[in-house]
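Continuing from the previous page of notes. For each protein in this section, the sequence appears first, followed by its structure tokens. Read the first protein now.
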Amino acid sequence: MLKIVSTILLVCFFSGFCFSQSEILSEKDLNNQPVDSILSWMRANSTTGENLDEFHRIGLKTLKRSLKTENDSLISKIHESLANWHSYNGLFSPDSVVYHAEKALAYHLKGDDQKKIADTYRSLSIDYLNTGQLDKAQEVLFRSIELYEELKDDAGLGSAYRTLGVKYRVMEDYEKSIYYTNQAIPLLEKTENYSELAIAQFNLIIGYGELGEYEKAYKATEDCLEIVKTKVPEEIFIPIRAYSYRGEVYTKAKDYDNALKDYLAAWELCKKHIGEERCATYRTEIGQIYLLQKNYGQALDHLLAGVSAYEDKDQGGIIQPYLDLAEAYIQLGDYENALLYKDKAYTNSKNLLEGKIENIESEMAIKYETGKKDETLASQAALIEQKSKTQTLFIVIASLLFVFLLSLLYFFYKSKKATRIIRAKNAENELLLKEIHHRVKNNLEMVKSLIALQSAQIEDPATKDAMIASQNRVQSMGIIHQKLYQGTNLGSIEMKDYFINLSEGILDSFNAEDQVKIECAMDNLDLDVDTAVPIGLIVNELLTNALKYAFPKQQPGIINISLEKDTHQNLKLQVRDNGVGKTDGLAPKGTGFGSQLVKLLTRQLNGKMIERNDNGTHIEFDFLIRKSA
């Protein structure tokens, strides 16, 4: 205890000012105290449910002050705190959460904290899911996954895969939701992220329930409750939601007794920790089960309380609770209230018709009140008949319009869902393809390392040179796969950057960085993989040959590489050095394997090679790419 108190005192001392969690900040505090100290107060109060009226004013005032500091990290933290508060307390629309989360991301992107950027991408994906922006959610989620993989962050990757499971759950693709959740669970267990591990079970409870695999859904619930009980007992909302989700599964399985037990458990647990008023919406679920059990009195009490809570929160989109409430009133013989809630459920579809009827009734009343009683009596029958015809006409028109709109909505939703699925599959395939290139590159690196280990134990110079040449060939292919998974275009390689990377690797293998300079005199040029690989191997052989023979006795030199494409899409490759050149009549050095490989690859690309000795060696290739394709 003494240690905790000492720590708090130190924090207060170094921050310059310390606020208690429940303390309301005065206008003087807001203007004079350090922004960091006020931010600490905001973080302490963002999830307490206290100071609701004051928090937003304090947050906006602090944000305004932070903008003047031009401290990107500080500004982003304040936006994050405001987003968390909006999300937790539900006083603003989800769009306000997204606004502050996007602002936080924008300021994080100005810095170089890749871990924080990845975390913010993942958090923003959840906010997009809550507002139904599934495409944006998918986009930022895949960005976070790429960053986590680069950082080798298992904890972040586990969270991202769990969120991907949520995304597919929202899209009602429950099999994929379960698949990605099961990918996340080992990572969350490994990194001891028990809160998210428990929350991940929600995807399994809902997914297995929707697929009819009820026993697996029940087991996922027990796993969730056990994790909270043994690892994170302070997490009060997780078991509440777990009981509620399992109640839905029991309802689907028509096991109403167990469904009622779980819904009651969720409600009681919620009341215990956050108060009865904020938990009243859970009572609609309890009322629904009592209705199914034909216990109409109990159903009515709970449904009324739940519906009232929804209406107090201005959540006007509820329909089923109204219909359930109407059914309870019908069964209890209270047809007036039953009709009231039936009308609430179907208000939007009846507005037009009711308006027309009211016009007719108003016209009749005006005529009567202005002394035209005789005319009113004479025309009453005609008006009643006209009212009936008008009512029938409007019912027919409204029905046709309703059917037409339903058809449009159905086809629109179906098309939008198909588009989302296609985009999701494309993004998933791209991610998998990058992973394949990544693994191929890693495997080639392993092969290169094995060759290096083997060559270190070889004393014969000729054999050692052959092993180094093999390393360079493997490296030339490995660089291509590295460029593919790091780039934005999975089908092509930018050759100038590739030649620069290849040159640096070969110079390093010969320890010739200070002796020989390799220049790439060419514009940026993208080539497909099938063309880039053989050209890369050719250049690798020529550079290796030049470094071995063109500059004897540590003679300095320059090697020039150029590659260009003509108007017919054919390629011209030139590699030249200012070394000693070749002596006529002198037998070639080495095994000759490299020369054979160059000739073979040249034929593969339907090319021809010209070699000249003029102040060094100049080798030129013309590749007829269209014919070779």
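Done with the first. The second protein uses the same format. Note its length before scrolling.
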Amino acid sequence: MKYHKIIIFALVLLGTTSCKKWLDVNSDPATPQKAKAEYLLSPIIYQMANNTATDNRIIFKYTQDMFGQDITSFTTAWEKHGYQTNSDIGGSMWRMVYLNFGPNLEDMIKDAEATNKWTYAGIGYAIKAWGFQLLTDAHGPVILDEAFREQLQFKYQDQPEVYARVREWSQKALECFTKTDEVGVSVLLAGVSGDQMYKGDRVKWRKFIYGLLAQQYSHLVNKVEFRTQYADSVVKYVDLSFSAATDDATINFAGATGADSNPFSQNFGMYTVTATTAPTYGRVSQNIVSLLTGGIRGTAAIDPKTSTDPRLTRMINPVPSTGVYRGAFPFNGTATTPHILGALSGTVLAPFPGKYLYANAARYPIMSYAQLQFAKAEALWWKGNANGAFTAYVNGIKGHMDFINLYGRNGNPAAPVITQVEIDDYLKTTEVAQNSASLTISDIMQQKYIAQWGWAGMEQWSDLRKYRYSSSVYRTYKQLETGDFYDRNLGRYAYRLRPRYASEYIWNRDELEKWGGLYGNYHTFETWSNLP
């Protein structure tokens, strides 16, 4: 009875005071319900890094960028192209698009359009297009037309419709960037709570959008239209996009605390755990070590301490006790294997804590000039334009060297700059094609793999999937063998992430069933973009 009295008292109290003061929060500046665009952008951009990094933990196991060091069923399931049942692991980008962005991003765009903050609106559409592109590439069919509605069950739409919508939103973004902003918008965007990617630079945001469109078309290599249509679109949009590594899309972090640090960093603590705390993620793979030590075109060195590729010493730590560069293998991690201990570039252990992209204040990459140049090289190679492909291929290698010099020289002590002499010397080695006649698709894709290693999980996975994990393209990739695959796979490789467990397998099972999502091996079904 006392409980009911308290409620009645509260209602009486509200009734004897001004309803305007208590309930009309939209007119109270201290408790606004309708947030302005400038309040929403910075947290949204943060989520771009947070959620891609979170899902990269397991995508890196599929791509063999990084592995775990323990031998738990969780670690080995993902490394064997399986998944964790009844878990939201692998669902962070789903959460990002529908919750972390969600209505907040919609409100940001609406407020920006209504108040002539056109740069905010353009950035909003660009982020929306980028988010749905990653989401459909990860999962295949996703919620599109019914997204953000107040209901419990939602229908899915497949990649052709999502790809088309991404192009529509990209065009809307470009249109917004042609309109004049209200006075003061540029100051807001350049401030500490503004645009943490480009500080409101419309030219670079346009290039980002063109890069996104180039990536979309580059995923369609297996379509019969690729050589006659889509390859030309890749080339067109790459040429409109980044002109150098200085254009790369990277997110700024202050690095003072876990809350404002790069998600790959020690402060954040998601990748950089030590061997004594169950290192499920973040151990450098032997795959990348082999690519950096002779494995692209030849035979990788055994227990190397040096390499003709100057990127090795900038990207990866050697084994502290021996100076040997050695990585982990999939399927057989162990917490007591000495050479794996501290192999992560960003480990808190010596030498060089926070190396490459794994420092607290390191910029978090989203898209790079180098990866786009390799996409162009790939497209031209398939069109039979060997000379053009070779030029883009060399630009990609140089672009990644510049990427390292601009964004990857972190840690204490910081790695030295890659000099022009080192670049020139590497380009003359047997690991690099010396002319257009000798250039192969494997040369292009393996160099792209190096440029994307350790950060571009989704694009890395898109590349591997469209070549069906081919050992002739990816020479150092450890193929699944009998006994190496997850028991629900039936010997197949992973081609999609399963939808987020909590929201879909609990509330949306009827829709999942229509797409085969209740099958144990649903994640091995190839997505539309990958199919002929």
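What the second structure shows: The first strand starts at residue 66 and ends at 67. Confidence is low (pLDDT under 50) at residues 1-25, 334-348. We return to this in next week's lecture.
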